[in-house]
Amino acid sequence: MTNQYFATVARGLEEIAAKELENLGAKNVNPDFTGVYFEGDKALLYKVNIWSRIIFRVLVPINTINSKNAEELYKNVKKINWAEHLQIDQTFAINCTGKNQELNHSHFTALQIKNAIVDQQRDRYNRRSNIDVKDPDILINAHIYDHQCILSLDSSGESLHRRGYRPAMGDAPLKESLAAALLEMANWTPDIPFLDPMCGSGILPIEAALKSLNIAPGLSRNRFNFEQWSDFDAELCDRIIDEAIEQQKHELDAPIFASDRNVEMVRQARINAKKCDVNHHLKLTQVALENIEAPTDHGIIICNPPYGKRLGKSEELGSLYKLLGDIFKQRFKGWTAYVLSGNKELTKKVGLRTSGRIPVYNGSLPCTLLKYELY
């Protein structure tokens, strides 16, 4: 049976997510703002949750209702047969996005939906489900736009970008999903040596290792919310997981190097790499940027230096960017470098001509991924 799904994704990553979904077997893939519509069967739903490196969560729309105000929203939510989706002994929560003129506060909108659901349960069974905002069995997504509300079941639960391997993180870490997307933007493939000379807590090299070893990121999760659904097919899910495990590789095709000048950052990166069992595949060292040398005669560099918005002060970072450009030019002939930055003035200090500029958001910060061909 073919169903329609909606994958939520960070702003600017819609096209990359669409390509990933197509590679996983999705049909009728249609990117939209911060999301991608696609179609597939139940097996695809499980597969996307287990394999996606880019998206946040997969929603399964169950109803679109009129909702020009709180009263109409409550009335139409209560008309839905919630027994098909939620059992009395299951906990649930509402995640609300969007707004209109009357429903302009997400907490109030979520409260109206919750009240309608539990009032229906009380009317039918004289009992109601409990709310659990931290770890609900059933997570309902409500999106308000104009005078309508799209109600969906969230199949993922906790955002898929949380791989489960990152107990230790730096002061301004990349989301794992953004790190995976940067690898795609840089056209990095596992047969190309990789280097992050400012690796922080190690997210970029770890995501590179997971991709190179063909490790499905969802394998590290404790559970997905679709496992709590009444139509959950445990045998099908187990088969997809077993296939994912069988497809893992045991050796890298090309080396992955990472370093940082801060010994504490290197320690955190090692903890994170060990958590997902790729620590013995990474060449992770403590090296100051000024002392770094090219480890091979070609490869791809991706780095995320501080750019004054979260770490450091921009006026103090000019020398760092100049050093970065000097190191690239003097020691990395034959390589291609990518620098993610949210500060145009700082990137001018690199002093090299860019061969590409890709707009990207790091959270809410508009940034650019700058490409440098190093001859």
From TrEMBL:
<dbReference type="InterPro" id="IPR054170">
    <property type="entry name" value="RlmL_1st"/>
</dbReference>
<keyword id="KW-0808">Transferase</keyword>
<keyword id="KW-0489">Methyltransferase</keyword>
<dbReference type="InterPro" id="IPR053943">
    <property type="entry name" value="RlmKL-like_Mtase_CS"/>
</dbReference>
<dbReference type="GO" id="GO:0003723">
    <property type="term" value="F:RNA binding"/>
</dbReference>
<dbReference type="GO" id="GO:0070043">
    <property type="term" value="F:rRNA (guanine-N7-)-methyltransferase activity"/>
</dbReference>
<feature type="domain" description="THUMP">
    <location>
        <begin position="44"/>
        <end position="155"/>
    </location>
</feature>
<dbReference type="Pfam" id="PF22020">
    <property type="entry name" value="RlmL_1st"/>
</dbReference>
<dbReference type="InterPro" id="IPR029063">
    <property type="entry name" value="SAM-dependent_MTases_sf"/>
</dbReference>
<dbReference type="Pfam" id="PF02926">
    <property type="entry name" value="THUMP"/>
</dbReference>
<protein>
    <submittedName>
        <fullName>RNA methylase:THUMP</fullName>
    </submittedName>
</protein>
<dbReference type="InterPro" id="IPR004114">
    <property type="entry name" value="THUMP_dom"/>
</dbReference>
<dbReference type="Pfam" id="PF01170">
    <property type="entry name" value="UPF0020"/>
</dbReference>
<keyword id="KW-0694">RNA-binding</keyword>
<dbReference type="GO" id="GO:0008990">
    <property type="term" value="F:rRNA (guanine-N2-)-methyltransferase activity"/>
</dbReference>
<dbReference type="InterPro" id="IPR000241">
    <property type="entry name" value="RlmKL-like_Mtase"/>
</dbReference>
<dbReference type="InterPro" id="IPR002052">
    <property type="entry name" value="DNA_methylase_N6_adenine_CS"/>
</dbReference>
